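Entry 14. Structure prediction run on the chain below.
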Amino acid sequence: MRHVPSSRSIASFWHATKSSVRKPDSQLVHFTNSNFKISPLNQPIEEEAHDNLTKRRYYPVGTGDLIRGKYQVLGKLGYGLGSTVWLANELRQRPVVLKVFTNGLQNRAEIDVHNHLMKVQSKHPGRDHIRIALDACSMQGPNGEHHCLVYEPMLESAQDLLRRNPSGRFTEDLLKVFLHYLLSALDYLYRDARLVSDISGFNILLGINDKSIIQRFVEAEQEHPSARKDVQGYTFYASRAFDSPSGKSIGEPLLSDFGSAVSGDVEHDEDVQPNVYRAPEVCLKAPWSYSIDIWNVGCMIWDLFEGKHLFYGRDRKERKYMTRAHLADMVALLGPPPVELLKAGKRSTEFFDKDNGWIADIPVPARTSLDELEENLEEHNKEAFLRFMQKMLQWRPEDRQTASQLLGDDWLNGRS
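Output returned:
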C-alpha cells in the first residue's frame, strides 16, 4: 500500500498527481540573439576549470544543437567533474534533460546502474519516486565516445530548498511528507532493484508541476543568451537556473544520482558516503550493505529539520574532517560501540582497544544525547520523533530498522 500523508498544509506543496506534459511545437526553437556576454579568456568558466584542453574530456554541446536527430538543446543547467547537464526538447514529444558524460570509462558505473533500473520490472510504489532515465544514447565526439542519459526535468534539490527557507530548516509536516516518499523509494531499491544508494539532500530532486517554468527558461535563453567563450574551438557555456519555485509549482521529490550505487547483495568495505553521513561500519572499514542508507537518512533528517549536522567529525588538531573525530562524536552521542562491530572493522585498532576503550589521539567530546540536541519539538511529540531517530542511529547495522519498518512509525504517521 502506498503511504501518502493527508496533511492539507503540505498537500498543496507536494502534488501526488503530476501535471500532464504539453507537447511542444514540432518546429525547432530558434536562438538568433547573438548578444551574449563573452567571458574573459583568463577566467575559467564552469567545466573549463576541470578540463585539461589537451584531453578534451567533455562533449561539445551547444544551445540549439540537435542531438541524435531527436533532442534539441535549449540551454545549459549545470556541470560536474564527469558530465554537463542540458535542458532539451524531445521533438514532437516533451521537454527532457540530457546528462552528457565525459569520454572514457570513468562514468560507466552510473550508466550500468541506470540500465539495470530501466530493466527492473516492478509494481512497487516506490519506483515512482526514483529518477529513472527515459532513454540512453551515445555520441562520437572529437576525442572518443560519450554516453548520455535522458531524464524528466526537475527543479532544485532538497538542499537548495533548505537554503532558500528563511528558517534554515524544514517544518515537521514537510519533513514527514518528504520522508514518506524517500523511504518508499529506498524500499523499492532494497526489495526489487537490490541497490545501496548514496543519500543526501543534494541527490533528492523536486519535480516540476508548473511547466511554464520550462517555457520561461527557454524565453530567457532566447532574449538574454547565457555567457560563453570559445577556447581552441570548444565553447564553454555558463549555466542558467530555473526560476525559483514556490507553492504549487513544486512536485514530488525523486531520489536521483546513482553514480555511487552498488549491489546490496555483495559484501563491501570500501569508503563511501559524504563525510558527515558516513556510517560506523564505513568509518571502521567493516563489511557494509543496505543499512548504511538508513544511517544516512537519519543524519540527513537532522540536517533538514534541525538545520545543522548531527556529526561534524572536525579534528581540532588537524583542523579538517578526520575519521577519528567522527567516531569520537559518535561515542559522545551513542556510547562505546559493541565489541562485535569492532572485531569486524579493519581500522578498529586505530581507535579502540580490545575492550572497546577509546585510544585515538584526541579526546571524546562530553557525553550528549539526541534529547539534549533536539531544539524544535516538545513533550510527547519530541519523544516520538527521537524514538524514530533512534531506530536509524544504531552502532550495529542489524539493529537499524529497514525502510519498510520505518514507514510504519508512529511519529511519521501522526500517531504520537
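The chain has a mean pLDDT of 88.
Filed with the rest of this week's runs.
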